[in-house]
Amino acid sequence: MSFLKVAEGSDFPIQNLPFGVFSTADNPNHRIGVAIGEQILDLTVVKHLFTGPVLSRKQHVFTQPTLNSFMSLGREAWGEARAVIQRLLSASEPTLRDNKELRKKAFVSQDSATMHLPAEIGDYTDFYSSRQHATNVGIMFRGKDNALMPNWLHLPVGYNGRASSVVVSGTPIRRPMGQMKPDDAKPPVFGACKLLDFELEMGFFIGPGNKLGVSIPVSQAHEHIFGMVLMNDWSGPSSPHWQSTTSVSLQNDEESRQRRKPDVTFAARDIQKWEYVPLGPFLSKSFGTTISPWVVTMEALLPFVIANPVQDPKPFPYLCSDDPYMFDINLFVSIKGEEMAEKVTICRSNFKNMYWTMKQQLAHHTVNGCNVRPGDLLASGTISGPDPESFGSMLELSWKGTKPIDLGSGHKRTFLQDGDEVILTGFCQGDCYRIGFGECVGKVLLAIQK
C-alpha cells in the first residue's frame, strides 16, 4: 500500500509505477517521472535517494530529458530503481511520507502536467504478428484457402518504419495527402486520403542494445526489453487487391458526405494500394503513429505472463524459446465523434492474441546483425482476436466497409470521420489491483489541401 491515496481501479497503483517524461507550466523542462495514482513522482527531486550499488553512481540518468540513458542501464538498474521507488511510496516508509517540504517538491498532479515522448526514438520497427489479423486480411483479399502468406508461420513478418512521426497521446493526426488510383481504368489522382483506419497495437522499448554484426539470442532477448506502451499505428497491411476496399468505402464516403461531411479513416489504405508495389507502403504508413506516454515496465507485467502460443510448424532454433513471454493484457478501442456525447467502445481484444512473442521479434530483428539502440521502438502489428468484437482495425470491424459499425443514436461508421477521436486503453487485472497503461488518444484533423 502507498501512503498516497490511489483510487480503486486506478491504472497506476504502487504495483505498477510506469515511467514517463513530463513538464509543467512553472517548469517547462522535460523531466522523468513515475505515475502513482493521480500524481507524478518527479525523479529529479528524489534522485539523491537512489543509493544502491548501481544507481548511486548513475543518479544523473534521472536528470535527463528522456528515458534513453536509464533504459540503457539494463535490468539490474531497472529492478533497483523499482525497489527504491516502491519503498519511498510505501505507507510504512517515512522519507517522503513525513517530509512535507520534500513531498511538495516531489509530487505533481497529472492534471497539471504535459506529457511528452518518453524516449528519443532512433528507429521504429513494425511487425505483423497477430495470426487472426493476418488471416482476416488474407481472407478478404485472397480467400480463405490462401489467407496466410507462405512465410507467415516461419518468421515474424515486419518492416523498418520511421521514427520522426511517432507522437505522444493527445497529438492530433492530420489526414494525409497522396496519390490514389480509385478506378483501375483511369489515371491516378492526387488528393486527401479517403481510406484511413486505426490499428490497435502495442509497442516495446529497447533497453541495452547490441553491437552491429552481433545478434541477440532469443534466450537473452528479455534482457533488452524495457517496457511496453499502447500504440495506434494509423495504418494498414499491404495487399495487392485494395480495389475491393476502395469501391465499397468510397460509396459509404459519398453517403456520409451527403449527410454531413466527408467520411475519412486513419489508415491511408487508398494511398497504400497504389504506392506499395514493389517496395512496400511509404506515405500511407509514415504520417503518424501515436503511443501512450507511460512506459509500463516488464517487471510490473511479469505477474501476468502466460504460456506462449503453440507454433506449428516449429520455428528455426534461433526463434525457439520455452520461457513464457506472452502477457494477458486487456485492450480496448473507443471512438468519440464530434457529434457524440460519449465515447463508444467498438473493440475488445487482448495482447495474448499474438502469435509471435516480443522475444522472437527481437531475436529475428537482430539475427542478421542489425543493431538496436536504447529507446528504439518495436511494435506488435494489429492485434485481433477470434471474435468480431476483438478485431483490431476498422477494415476488419466493418469487413471492408460492408458492415457499418453502430455507435448508437443513429451514428454509424465504416471508417472514421474528420473530428473523430480514437481512444486506446489497456490493463492487466490483478487481485484487487490493475496494471494500466493510461490512454492513447488521437483526433483526426482535416487534410491540408495543396
Radius of gyration using CA atoms only = 22 Å
- Described by the principal axes of the CA atoms, the overall outline is globular
Give the helix tally.
Answer: 11
Q: Tell me about the biggest sheet?
A: 8 strands, mixed
- End-to-end span in angstroms? 56 Å
* Share of helix, binned: 10-25%
Number of strands: 24
| Protein structure class | alpha+beta
Strand coverage percent: 25-35%
Q: Can you tell me the residue ranges where pLDDT is under 50 for at least 5 consecutive residues?
A: 236-267
Instruction: Please tell me the overall pLDDT.
Output: 91
Describe this structure in words.
The chain has 450 residues and is of the alpha+beta class. 20% of the residues lie in helices and 26% in strands. The chain has eleven helices and 24 strands. The protein has helices at 43-46, 68-72, 75-89, 94-97, 100-106, 131-142, 243-259, 269-275, 298-301, 358-366, 394-397, and strands spanning 19-24, 27-36, 39-42, 107-109, 113-116, 124-127, 158-160, 166-168, 173-174, 177-180, 189-192, 200-206, 225-232, 289-291, 296-297, 305-306, 326-327, 330-336, 344-350, 377-379, 405-408, 411-413, 421-429, 434-445. A hairpin with a 7-residue loop joins strand 18 (330-336) and strand 19. The termini are far apart. Residues 236-267 have low confidence and may be disordered.
